[in-house]
Amino acid sequence: MHSQDVVLRLEEKGIKPTANRILVYNALAENERPQSLSDLEELLVVMDKSSIFRVLALFEEADVVHTFTDGRGIIHYELCGSHGACSHDDGHVHFYCETCRQSFCLTEEQLPAVSLPEGYTQHSLSYVVKGECAKCRKRRGISE
Amino acid sequence: MHSQDVVLRLEEKGIKPTANRILVYNALAENERPQSLSDLEELLVVMDKSSIFRVLALFEEADVVHTFTDGRGIIHYELCGSHGACSHDDGHVHFYCETCRQSFCLTEEQLPAVSLPEGYTQHSLSYVVKGECAKCRKRRGISE
DNA sequence: AAAAAGATGCAACCGAGTTGCATCTTTATG
DNA sequence: CATAAAGATGCAACTCGGTTGCATCTTTTT
What we know:
The structure is a homodimer.
Chain A: H1 3-12, H2 19-29, E1 35-36, H3 37-43, H4 49-61, E2 65-69, E3 75-79, E4 92-97, E5 103-110, E6 121-132, H5 134-139
Parallel strand pairs in A: 4-6
Antiparallel strand pairs in A: 1-3, 2-3, 4-5
Chain A binds a DNA duplex through residues 16, 18, 20-21, 36-38, 47-51, 53-54, 57, 72-75.
């Protein structure tokens, strides 16, 4: 995605495209996996943690990113629309590898919807499978 | 559940039934909703936080409880089998109310299973819907 | 050009989760 | 039964992801 496209994308969401915001957007766009705040701190050493945090909060508010918490409770951020359809109640399953502690998107799997009880309203939804990814399993020799 | 039943239940899972462990078990059994560590601290003022933590870790290891993280990333503990079938990959949806910040079990909803990519192994799974519960929605007058 | 609004960095804080260590309790052993 | 070994507990301290107050810098408005 070209820098100019990012600018347009942010503007269409009502967000002023500052340098920092473009950096955060690109960091998310360039990584196929959902990133945590700590991940982004490493990727964006020029930015302060609090600035990254505020950009992410803004992005979430404007539905530019959506979030989910992995097996340890750490928030991960992912661009809306990065793997097919999106919005806050967008649609795919995440996998958290308990060995390498990374999160993946299972893009093949669409999220099965559930019907809520009377009076409940849904804002977003997350479906996370915890286990071990293929790479880690292979590395350990498929024993066990 | 009688005290003696709790003892048997723990022993059958290979856990020595100490006073603290029975307290934690009962605290979980007496509350229909999944409890966080902080919740349990309030319920069990006689116990130290670290002791509660270690009991919960032991329980999880022995499949006495399972966990999931709510919308804020806070770990919640629930007795296995407390709402129908169980094990680590047990089966119901959780709802996190962003207004009252409480978690509920949606016992009517069975968890739709997903098939993982080749080589991935599943240990547990969580499906959390974020939104507003019926009580909070009513309290606010169903405006919006 | 000056004032107002917004964005950023720094430092400090918060709270859930976790750990080291000394003490107390229970279990195993002579 | 006495003692040693193993296990459970409480206390205090620490980690780290997340969050906030505030001063400064930048952009926009007037």
